[in-house]
Protein 1
Amino acid sequence: MPGRLEAFVAGDQAAFESLFREHQREVYGWIVRMVRDPSAAEDLTIETFWRIYRSRARFDPSRSFGAWARRFAVNVALDHLKRAGRDRARLEPIADADGAATQPADRDARRSILRAFLKLPAALRVTARLALVEERPYHEIGALLGISPAAVKSRVFRATRLLRRDLAEWAHDRS
Amino acid sequence: MTDREWQLMIRQAIEAERWPELDRDLWPRMQARTAAARPSPSRWDFLLLAAIVLLSLMFPDVLLHLFYHL
């Protein structure tokens, strides 16, 4: 009797539904952090799973479904960010996780950093997020984005340089 | 500031944001998407079918020849 992943590859709807229900929150979580728009993130979650469903014949059931889904999610989010452009990116930071406990100076610092981060071009922003925030290895990011580890390194370098340039004055005051 | 300090600062700023969790099941929307994408017969398919039926009624021998060769 085939497992759930084998059944999914064979086109079994029940297997797809089971995988969808298990992974939808995780995929939504990845996407909303990249696109910063909960409403768009729902649509993009559907789009991610739609691409996954259409590409099911290429999936190797011996590999992780989550890792495979992540690759689709990153690219769907990136496509959306490129289409939307930086003008439509949500620039105002949302509620901090530690809320009122945060000092106003720290909140201002975070906002400055976030604004600078959101000004980065979409491809640099997504790469920088995966490398600097999630600390994923370059070869893994390369596999997710379909680029070489050297290209990942170059994007991270460019993103860091742009962020430093944008935040130079603020960092100078701070030090 | 060192690269590591920059990285930590960026990480803290981004991780401090709290995004809402998905609070509903998206499966019904996913199901509608897959159902809408299933290929449905076009009017050309129906026209072709009608032409075959019409030809087989007008020239029944053609069908016999066709089955013989199949």
Protein 2
Amino acid sequence: MTFVTDSTIEPSEMIEPVATAARPRAKFRKRGVVTKWLAIIWLALLTFTAIGANWVPWVNHDCSQFGDKAATECSTHLIGSPFLLEKPPAWATFADAKGITIPGAPERTGWFGTDSNGRDIFARSMFGARVSLTIGASSIIFGLIIGGGLGLLAGYKGGRIDRFIEALMNIILAFPALLLVVFIVGFFGSSGADQATNRSIQPIILALVVLSIPPLQKLVRANTIVYAQREFVTAARSIGASSSRIVLREILPNVVPAMLTFALVGVAIVIVAEGALAYLGLSVNAPSPTWGNLILDGQSKLENSWWISLMPAATMFVTILSINLLGDVLAEKFRIREAIG
Amino acid sequence: MRYVGQRFVQLVIVVIAVTFTVSLALSAMPNAKERVILYRGAGLTNQAEKDKLLDSLHLNDSPPAQYGYFVKDLVTFNWGTTNNNESVKTSIWDGLQISIRLMFYGQLFALGLAIPVAIGAAYRNGGLFDRLSTTISFGFLSAPTYIIAPVAILLFSVHWKFFPSLSKNVSFFDDPWLHFKNFIMPTVALALPVAAGYMRLLRADMVNTLQSDFITTARAKGVSTNRILFGHALRPSMFSLLTSAAINVGTLVGGSLIVETAFGLNGLGRKTVLGIFSSDFRLVQVTVAILALVYVFFTFLVDIAYGWLDPRVRAARTLS
């Protein structure tokens, strides 16, 4: 088949079609392995720091180690130092602090610099990762349970139940995705009559769960239908296995790889959606930052201090890229076509 | 015809459910009345006036009656006023103009970028250009609009000062050059992730098509490469791309709210978000209902067109 694929190459190159076709592909694969491991390492490090953000020394400094200078020179994700307002990252030798400078203050500081309150942006990004990853993971887990359950039910039972669930999913899909989330969070999120104070994490997760149910349901349903017609299911039924046993013990284990692969990419989608909410000012309120909040905070200061907005943006970008890369690798491994566009 | 009929029944059910949900969201909310009084009736003190305000919005009626009023108002275009006593109709119309413009430019840009790149990538599958474009498109797929927007502003407004960082709604007919300057950055920020998706779709289909027998036959006949790519291979490969583009028409009109926020354009999405913040329920309800209806209608059209373009789809769907 490779011969046909490269039907556009020149006749002189066609003498060894297999060799010309195989070489770039081998290179491709080797590079894929490197990027795959980079992605895994990044995600592992990020998860580790996100979970341990409170204790890991390179995120949460103990300000007492500075002694009496603690009040002026130590900055964490919450405590800002007036000494360190809008300082560029330590490695950015091309960037200058254009804000107010107090004599004796360092010109550059930290890995990601500091924001306009003198707080450490790296620490804030890592604490932001905590919120963003929590929201991403828990939304997808609930989405998997509900959407997967509905998908198994619809795919196995078929008929009227299937049509009813499909209609339900179509109704959810009919709303523009982001507007639906904004609608839910905005209307049900704030408890008081005054707007946007004390918004907690639950309504956001609820909204994102609603968003993630239909695609997961559709994927699981399609896979269930395929496996429900296989011989081993017929065999199980003929020896008298109950429906619940067939679904849980025969079909579910076969559907799980597709579910998990899709769920992984789903985490990235949910993190992006949460960032969008935060960017619109509809996510968790301060003091807990999320990536979207951090990007929004820095955007008005882009002119003087680009790092406030762009360093969290870069963190988020690399994370989403890693998740998508891993999702691609898994999808290829399990031969899953993308279920939604 | 039976297939169209089935789809139509589904359409009607979804339309009813969508309007129902939007209408009932208000009565399901625990503190809707207090919020309305807080934002709309700021000067009202006695209970009679407050009740009058709530009555005028049908908030004291039962949920089914509220739904009836909502549908009636929606159909008769009697959409009421916003909190600032502006007509909801004009408010939505103003926003819609900007959103549709963004959607149109974005689609144009995305398709114009994705189609040539995808053809080039599929032509030498596995070659340098393919690997480069696939990698770059993967990057853009992972870069949400609110990450592209600050980077674009930093480069093109702050550093090089080409374009304004806050876009103004300048009409094309007043000043084409200013219009271009104001809309190029929102368009690109909106279109790049979309273009990346399109490119991957078209490339995958095109690679498949290029493996078909009729392409080999065409090559054997001595048809030129350009003719094979554009004349023979492109059309059968465009199927999923066109589907996705058509569905995106509905999605992008409501989905451009991030771009609108980033560049300060008062489009429909931004108006909705601001409406949610100020508890402007009428505006939000009508906007969400309209956007959902537009989306449902476009999906319906795509489904019909799908069956019409490819008889196999029609047959398979009627059977199942």
